Amino acid sequence: MALKKFAAFGCAALLVAWSSPSFAEPEPASCRNLRFADNGWTDITSVTALASVVFEALGYKPSTTMASVPISFAGLKNKQLDVSLGYWWPLQQLQVQPLLDSKSINMIEPPNLSGAKATLAVPGYAWAAGLKSFDDIARYRKELDGKIYGIESGSSANAKIQKMIDQNLHGLGGFKLVESSEAGMLVTLERAIRNQKWLVFWGWEPHPMNIQFSINYLSGGDATFGPNYGEARVYTLTATDFLERCPNAGKLVTQLRFSTQLENQLMQAVMNKTRPAEAARAYLKQNPQVLDPWLADVKTFDGKDGLAAAKAQLGL
């Protein structure tokens, strides 16, 4: 949305800066210490590590702050953070839209990931036995122990689940929302599948859970989570002054594009205990072509050709 507004208002100066010879000049020293937000979800951790590795190869010194979704958005608003790669739309729209409307943060168009989804899911054996839609959940209250497993406290996903319970949507009145971290929820899922226990949980894709476990997403949740099983896009957010203050770093940030296949591979490595930065470097060695569009017309921090420098630094 922010970039559309720049274009609409003819903010040509920024666009010219991205293509002008002045790009050979180093950015302000403050831009070298690039500050990423990470809400702790494995997909965001993985792509943030990937972006950080690329920035390091360009001579920047990126850092990552682990923070909950609300705190990370507040950090961008207060300019304590520069970039978040993790705005899941429409899941987090209620939290983010007021910040966009007040021009407290910027959103980069187009999204860095399309074709994602996020909604309630169940193990395959529960789905095969009849738990296939939101309207089926209440029928199996006993098998589910009256619980729905969400993610971390304060998340939009949990808020939507709790709203369904409070309003008795789909007959869910009286169910209990169990809040947990992503890792905690996945441990619960793995244990349930091992014991063939029924479970309704918050699931999403991209995520290795989709290839590690036999799971199915529930239909009928369009009113709460959106059509096509909560089809989602993931956007990059920045502090309002970031793109203008750090045009070279900003150009790379706006050109980052990921795919579900890329993220599934990265996330699986991370969840298998590979350090995120190591997983990112390994992915780039196997897929160096992803750097070409990301680093088009991007320079190193000190003004040299970015693509050549990054490939040399990464041994590609």
Automatic annotation (TrEMBL):
UniProt-listed NCBIfam families: ABC_choline_bnd
GO BP term, pick one: choline transport
Keywords carried by this UniProt record: Signal
GO cellular component assignments: ATP-binding cassette (ABC) transporter complex; periplasmic space
Signal peptide boundaries: 1-24
Keyword Signal: yes
Alphabetized InterPro entries for the sequence: ABC_choline_sub-bd (IPR017783), ABC_Gly_betaine_transp_sub-bd (IPR007210)
Record-level Gene Ontology MF annotations: choline binding; transmembrane transporter activity
Entry protein name: Substrate-binding region of ABC-type glycine betaine transport system
Keyword Zinc belongs to the record: no
Domain called ABC-type glycine betaine transport system substrate-binding: residue spans: 33-286
